[in-house]
Amino acid sequence: MATSSSATTSTRKSIDCREFPSEKNCSLKISGTEEEVLTVAVQHAVAGHGHADGPELREMLRSGLREER
Ligand SMILES: [Zn+2]
Q: Cα torsion at 48, 19, 61, 37 (round to 10°)?
């Protein structure tokens, strides 16, 4: 449900948890549209790494996005 609301799925972004400093040696990698990745990454950062949700966290995660090809 609630998927493919837009047809522009050509560019996928990914974020690799290994590129962020962490004490957990987390190896999670998330890929999807920018919005999907950010949504899941925020949840993961909060639940998995104890970060506080907020503009700073989102900005940090956004800066870690890579384009997949
Ligand atoms: Zn992680």
A: -80
Q: What is the domain partition of the chain in residue ranges?
A: 12-68
Q: Collapse the DSSP code of 66 into the 3-class scheme (helix H, G, I; strand E, B; otherwise coil) and give the result.
A: strand
34 CA from centroid of ligand 1 (Å): 17
Cα distances (angstroms) measured from residue 3 to each of 18, 33, 39, 55:
28, 11, 14, 25
44 CA distance to ligand 1 centroid (A)? 6
pLDDT in tens, 18-53: 998 777 889 999 999 999 999 999 999 999 999 999
26-33 long-range contacts (CB < 8 A, ≥24 apart) are 31/68, 33/9
Asked if 58 and 38 count as a contact pair (C-beta separation under 8 A), the reply is yes
